[in-house]
Amino acid sequence: MSVKTARLQLDMKGDTQIENITKRVQEMVGGARLHAGIVTIFIRHTTASVMIIEDEPGIRADTKVMWDRLVPPDPQWQHNTRNAGETNGHSHLRGHLQGPSVTIPFADGALLLGTWQQVVVVDFDTCARKRELIIQMIGD
Amino acid sequence: MSVKTARLQLDMKGDTQIENITKRVQEMVGGARLHAGIVTIFIRHTTASVMIIEDEPGIRADTKVMWDRLVPPDPQWQHNTRNAGETNGHSHLRGHLQGPSVTIPFADGALLLGTWQQVVVVDFDTCARKRELIIQMIGD
Amino acid sequence: MSVKTARLQLDMKGDTQIENITKRVQEMVGGARLHAGIVTIFIRHTTASVMIIEDEPGIRADTKVMWDRLVPPDPQWQHNTRNAGETNGHSHLRGHLQGPSVTIPFADGALLLGTWQQVVVVDFDTCARKRELIIQMIGD
Fold first, then answer.
1. Contact C96 B51 (CB under 8 A)
2. Using CA atoms, how far apart are residues B89 and B94, in angstroms rounded to an integer?
3. At what angle do helices B89-98 and B57-70 cross, to 10 degrees?
4. What are phi and psi for residue B89, nearest 5 degrees?
5. Is the pTM of this model over 0.90?
6. Which of A34, B43, C25, C116 could form a disulfide with A139 if both were Cys (CB 3.0 to 4.6 A apart)?
7. Domains of chain A
8. Using CA atoms, how far apart are residues A18 and A32, in angstroms rounded to an integer?
9. Residue contacts between B and C (CB atoms, under 8 Å)
10. Which tens digit of pLDDT belongs to each residue from B111-132?
């Protein structure tokens, strides 16, 4: 049993942009020379999330519409009214509801994803930002 | 320390059906002969989720009502309009918001669930489907 | 590789109260004498959640407003109408949508959180309750 830590940096644009990282995570897991275990993909930010989706243009567009309805941008969020210059109160709320990480089992060095499952980062912020992720693999 | 992988198949009906898998997961953990660790229960699909609830008929009914309000079925989801024959745009959105997995600690071969916590699968799709789950245990 | 199990008890007040547990989790991870791994912070209740937020008063207030809009208290939730004396149907729905746990990678004995990420418990129930959490560390 051992632990392998990898990092991934992304340039994201915000506004519910979605970036597919499945291939990069799979390469990290394959390169770690672990047989079976779990990988936790954790984003080190409060206004972006990691999630698993069927990655096609309709789902990407619907995800943005869903969030604009559920937690709309609003100058009246107290994160914005209490903190001068802040406009991303809705981005924080979306980020903590969607969550910062996913944990995926692997075996024979391959992620045990279903046919349609893809790992993506979604950025809820209001401007472009650099994003850092930890990919922590534990297994034997 | 070692990793044990188990699989579970379910016949689900969709439409926010809930199936309780607590006893089956507990038996897998008990049978793995691991003392303490964590178990990740991961569903290999994008329109169904694993979650922890108090499993009583009121909560099951309320879960369906909540999702029908938050993310309603709608022919106008772009997943439906862009992909001929698709009607489950809302099922995808619900699935990725609720998430594909839960991770639960165990000790002395038993899940460390609280008194009222039950592990369930919820199927958000629009028709009956076979569902496959990975139950990945890591511990010593 | 080894597993370390710690427990944490909190007195919570309900009504979307938020309690920051970052420092206590960090001390448990630091005291476990593990180099690298993951920690799962799991709450053993169905009407409270563990989540990661930027912890400032605006976000705390906005989180309560968001939940009151998305899943409002309502005597008509079936959890309330079917079970005499129950008034916390909305608390259950919020708890299972937000989820009972977070899993965080650590290295060199320190949580790999981003600058603004804090680990908090949010209590959705309608009265004060004692809450118990399991902090399960796996690493080498």
1. yes
2. 9
3. 120
4. -55, -45
5. yes
6. A34
7. 2-139 (2.60.120.460)
8. 26
9. 101
10. 999 999 999 999 999 999 999 9
